[in-house]
Amino acid sequence: MKVYLIGIGMGAPETMTLWALEAIKECTALVGAPRLLERFQESHTCVPLIAGADIAEYIDKQREGTIGVLLSGDTGFYSGAHKLWTLLGDHEVITVPGISSLSYFCARLHTNWQDVKLVSAHGRSHNVVGEIQRNARTFALTGGATRVEDICQELTRRGLGGVKLSVGERLSYEDERIVTGTAAELAQGSFADLSVLLAENPDPVVRPFNFPGLPDEAFLRGEVPMTKEEVRTLALSKLRLEEDHVVWDVGAGTGSVSVECALACPAGQVFAVEKKQEALALLEENKARFHASNLHVVAGTAPEALQDLPAPNRVFLGGTSGELEEILNVIFRKNPAARVVCTAVTLETVAEAARLFAPLEGADMVQVSATRTRSAGRYHLMDAQNPVWIFSGEGRV
To answer: Does residue 210 form part of some domain?
Structure first.
C-alpha cells in the first residue's frame, strides 16, 4: 500500500508545503494526532492515532487506497517518522518533509540556527539545563515533565539567571505567543506544555583543551593545599568522568580537582566541599577564573555537609580529616554504585583507605612519586615531591 509520511509544519496552512498539500489531496484516509487532523475532518476519513505501533497496525489492515500519516513539524526533526520507517517496511512509503519548529521559530526571531545545540525534552528525559550550561546557543522542545518554567528556575538556582531565553507557544496559530527575557525573569511565568525555547548563554562551560592536567600555575593557591598536576591528572583518569555526572570533591582546597571536574562535566554539576575560610575564598576565585558555572562551593565539614547534596556519580576525596569511613557511608547511602577516588599521603590514612576500599568493586591502589626539576643558577636539580597513594573503586560488593 502507498503511504505518505507528511510533515505539516506548525499546523497552520501557511506553514505547509505545496508538496504536503498535494500529497494530502491524494490520500483517501489521514492518520495522526487529533490536533493535526482537525482541519481535514470534512474532506477526509480521519483516524486519530498517535503511537507508531497503532498507526502501523491500522495501515496493515487496509486493503486499498492511499494513507497519509500527518506529523507535526519536519519528518527528520524529533519526528514519529523515525519509528514508522521501520514499522512500515512492507509498504511503499513516501516521506514529505515539512518546516520544523526550529526553522520557523528562528525565522520569527530573525536569527540563524546553524550553530545551535538541538535537544528534546518532550516525552523523554533530557538534561536541558546541562546543555544550556555547556553551549552558547541551545534550542529545546519542552513538554511533559520538563516545563519551561522549571528550566528557568533551575538555571536561576545554578547562578545562570542572566541567560537569555526566547519561548514560543502555539507557533503559527492566531494565538501564537513569543516571549523573550532572562531565565530569572521568566522563572515565575507560566507557559504552554508544548513550548519551544532558544537559550543564549554568553559564558558556557568550556574546557580550554581536550585533556585534564591544567598546569598548577593556572590556579590561585595562596597557602592552601592543592592536588598537584601529576597526581591530579592520574586521579581524574581514575574518576572516569562523563559529561553529565554529578561530582563531589570533598576537602576541595584550592579547587584544582573541582575545576577540572567541572570542565570535564559541562552538562553536570560539581560540589566542592571545604571547611577552611581561606580555601573557600580561593575556590570562588578559581571558579570565576575558569568560568565554571556548574561548580558549587559548599562550606562545611564532611560528612555533615554532604547530607543535603544530590546523589553523586563520582566522588573525589582529597581530605577527610579522619572521617573516611563515615564519608564513604554517606556516599554509598546516596548512591550504592558511586565511583570514589581517594588520595592519601600519611601512612595512617593509607592503612585506613586500604581497609575500606578493599571491599569495593574494582578496588585499586596506585602509589605515585613525581620528581620535578628546578633551576639552581645555570644548573637544574631534581626536586622530589611527597609520594601519594591513590585509591579507587565503586559500589560495595
So the answer is: no
Domain residue limits at 82:
2-99
CATH of the domain at 38: 3.40.1010.10
pLDDT for res 125 = 55
* Cβ atoms 272, 252 nearer than 8 A: yes
Read off the pLDDT of residues 107-165 as tens digits, 9 standing for 90 and up. Answer: 999 999 999 999 987 655 568 898 999 999 999 999 877 889 999 999 998 889 999 99
What confidence tens digit (pLDDT) does each residue in 187-207 have? 999 999 889 999 999 999 887
Residue 291, sorted as left (phi over 0), alpha (psi -120 to 50) or beta, turns out to be: left
Torsion angle (degrees, nearest 10) of CA 187, 190, 192, 196 = -20
Answer with the one of 99, 128, 149 that is the final residue of a domain. Answer: 99
CA distances to 12, 72, 80, 196, 356 from 69, rounded to whole Å, are: 17, 10, 10, 23, 60
User: Both 92 and 107 in a single domain?
Assistant: no
Give yes or no for a contact between 140 and 194, defined as CB atoms under 8 angstroms apart.
no
Residue 87 domain-assigned (yes or no):
yes
- At residue 129, what are phi and psi to the nearest 5 degrees? -60, -40
Contacts 24+ apart (CB under 8 A), 169-175: 169/194, 169/195, 171/10, 171/101, 171/104, 171/105, 171/108, 171/196, 172/9, 172/10, 172/11, 172/12, 172/14, 172/15, 172/104, 173/10, 173/11, 173/12
Examine the domain organization and report whether 366 and 275 are in the same domain. yes
Rounded to 10°, the helix 229-239/256-264 angle is 40
Burial class (CB in 10 A: 0-12, 13-18, 19+), 140: buried
Domain boundary among 200, 229, 256: 200
Residue ranges with strand state E in the chain: 2-7, 29-32, 45-48, 66-71, 92-96, 117-120, 137-141, 164-169, 177-182, 196-200, 246-250, 269-274, 295-299, 314-317, 339-344, 360-368, 371-376, 379-384, 388-396
* Overall domain count for the chain: 3
